[in-house]
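Predict structure. Chain length: 161.
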Amino acid sequence: MDDILEILEKDARLSAQEIAKMTRKKPEEVKKIIDKYEKEGIILKYKAVINRELVRHKDEEVRAIIEVNLTPQKDVGFDKIAERIYSFPEVYACYLVSGTYDLLVFVRGKDLHSVARFVSEKLSPMENVKGVVTHFLLKKYKEDGVILKQRQEDKRIAISY
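Prediction complete.
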């Protein structure tokens, strides 16, 4: 992969000037290359990795990973089915994988029941879906190469008299 892409993937906040120093290119050249990558759809978006464990509020969401077993469609394989699945607003990532299951689908919901409804009412009844296994995410330790610090709980024993 291109050195500019590798640098941006690790830290998209770096300026063209900083990247130019790291790659021994001119800042204008770096800016031009980044603009080209954005226009060509190589760079799709810039993202912040948020430690949701440290941001507690009433709008917390439930996340789940769903393993989906499919029957591929004639002449199109898994692509059309995957497209239908990743078009649901609950789905934030979808991957074709090797192994026991065909797709890994990452979903969000406002609570456990909304994710369960998505699986039972939208995903499972689909024509080519043979089976699903849902895993709810309980705790995240690392995301996009970043180790997430955990909230320090008060470990003192409460004493009452």
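Summary: The chain has five helices and six strands.
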